[in-house]
Amino acid sequence: MNSELAIMGVTFASISAILAAVGMLVRDIFYPRVEPRRRLELAAEEPKGELNKAFFHLVEESGTSLSMGTALLIVMGGAIVGGGIPLVFTENLLAAAGGMVLGAFLPILVFMIIRWWRVRSMMRVLPQALQAVADSVRSGQTLSETMELVSKEIKGPLGSEFAYGHSQLELGHSPLSVMNRMVRRIPIAEFRIFATAVVVHRRAGGNLSLLTERMAHAARDRQDVRSHLMAVTSGSRLSAIGMVAGSIIAVALIAWLEPVYIKPFLEHPTGPYLIAGAVGLQILGGLWVWRILKSSY
Known about the structure:
Blueprint: H1 2-30, H2 50-61, H3 68-90, H4 93-138, H5 143-153, H6 157-170, H7 175-185, H8 189-204, H9 208-232, H10 234-257, H11 259-267, H12 271-293
């Protein structure tokens, strides 16, 4: 009786925790508050340690309103729920360990997908944004007025970042601190150069409008090269995806239609090791193809 109550309690707590975590994550991503970020002087500093820095930049570049501590709590909650559910229903420590790893990886995967979509969205409109900055600076407007103009003309994540920069400049923060904060959340090479040009212009002067216009042309050319590269390598990428997905679908179909073929293989002592090796080789091959096709242009 006590064990049944314990199982019911753990199950209820796990389901409640995962529903609460998913609900809060969806709320913060799709329904942010009017002021989702803290003021500039209260922004978190970059932590020490390579792993902490990588996770910190992942959270910052994803554009969410979550702090690093909240994101870590979500990952830890996913690990606890992922490990608790298999442990309750199967009482298998190996399954619980696998569920814990999977539960911790899923929130990180969500952050990675959000960052990928956000960066791609900003890269598409960055040439127009830089051209708008060049035109505004050439007409004699201040940096704050320029950011306000860009935030109204450019929609999406990049426009929101310029609106945030305008609000911080209006609060009296220095252009150096504002640009450093924006660079942290906009991981694009052209914008980093633009931010450096703004800081140098504030300290030593120079033709900021001309440099920004050149950066707009460079960003446009880089976007054209990237689009051409994606079109040229589309066949190779589809082939790699087809090989990985085809093997998974083939095994699933065999296990569904003729489970008698799969059962002896799984029951053999070396069967699980062969499956683990096959999965590892699939992952290694996918990462290898991704690395070859990845371009830094």
